[in-house]
Each structure stands twice: as structure tokens, then as C-alpha cells.
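Backbones bend. To wit:
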Amino acid sequence: MTVKVVTDSVCDIPQDLAEELGITVIPIYVHFGEESYRDGVDISKEEFFRKLKESPAFPTTSVPSIGEVMEVYEKLAEETDEIASVHLAPPLSAICDVALQAREQLGKGCRVEVIDTRAATAQEGLIVIAAAKLAREGMNLDQLVSEVHCIIPRAHLRVAFDTLEYLAKGGRIGRAQAFMGSLLRVHPILGVKDGEVVPVARERSRARAVNYLYNFVASFNNIRELAVGDAVTPDEAEMLAERLASIYPKERIYRLSVGCVTGAHVGPHALGVALIEGE
């Protein structure tokens, strides 16, 4: 039986790609005051960013219940006896803990391995995509888990921001807090390392920030997977993908647009690149 791959909606993998690769996506919740929505199910990205602009309530996020995750595992257990549950880093979310608790309650009929990607958004997404490809190649669960753990240290993310307001309010800013006091007319660039948001660079213009993203990708000699992600700046992301086509086949560059939960923490106009180094 083929290993089934499960993840959470913070991976920002497009629905059609998830379906193509057989990835089951568990939605994280986003809340505006008393209103709660499942990311990508009860609210679309477009609706979310419209509410983000118009709502007086600042959005918050929360993980699904153990029961909701168990339902996903139980359904997949009808098709397989091996599940790889690949998730957002614990410092940024409790989804790994919920998945572990759901696994314990599932019983012995199906084996579930929970993998902490130490990553977020498109960086997490590329790791999940790699896991799904390994499953399609016929790897068993032990082989897949071993290979994914080798991939995780080679997955990198850089995101250019207009503002760190959303990360700060959402409590996910980490060491990038150091940038908060000097951001007038500065475009911060952040990464995620070992599950923590980290400051990387500051650029004086948006154009220079985009150049930084391009040069970051260009600094790698061997790239296994590459993605460009954006928060409601698709034209800018497409232009960056076109530039990156000079160093990596454009048809292989994944375009991942920010979902509701990621959007609650990065806000609009974030632009990023994620990649997995080749061996």
C-alpha cells in the first residue's frame, strides 16, 4: 500500500497540486473576533484578505481538535496502513502535538509518523511535496521518514515584508523583533530556521528586497525544488519567477500563494522564495 501524506494548511500548497500528489490537507482555523473559519474551506484567500483590510478585529489562528485530526487519519486508514503526517514547526504552532495525540488514539490498525518540518509556509510546502513524491515512488514509511529528515535541513525560506506588524501582533516574530525599532522605509527580509522566525537582512526599497530574493536563490549551485510565494502580489511574484527562470526551469517553479492562516501572520504584500538544496 502507498504511504498517505497528510499536512496542514500553513503549507500553502494549491488545492489542485495537493489533489494531484495525493496530499491530504488539514485546515487550521482563522478567527475574526467571534467568527471562526477553516482555512481554505469556509473562507477563501481572497475573502480573507478582504476581511483583513475591512474588519476591525485582528485575526487570530488556532489548531484543529484531536478529534478532527483523528477523523482524517481514520478515513485514510481505510486505504492504507502507513501515514506520514508532515507539519508546521512546533515553535510556531501546536499542530504537531495535536497530531501526536490523535495518533495515540487511533489504535494499531494504521501506523502514523508525525514529522516536524522545522519550517513554515512555502518552505514547509516544498518538504510536503517532496514527501508526496517519495510516496509515489513507492517508498515505505520508514524510508520516507528517513529521507524527509535528510531533506529538512536543506530546505530554506526567505520572505520580504512591507511590515512586521502582523508577525508581532500574532506573537510569531521571534528574533526578528530586533528589526522592529528601525523599520521606517526599510523592507525586512526574514527566514525560518529550526522552527523560529529569524532576521536575515534589511533593504532600502522593495526593488532591492526583490533583488535579494533573486540573489539568494542564485547563490545555490544545485536546487532540487523551488517555489515563489506571495500574499496578494501575484504580478510581482510572476515577474520574480520569470527572472528565476534564467537559473531554474520556470515550468518547475511552484507558485504558492499565501493562505488565510499564513496571511494572518505575514499580512498583505509579503513575497518569498523557498527552495530545497540538491545533494
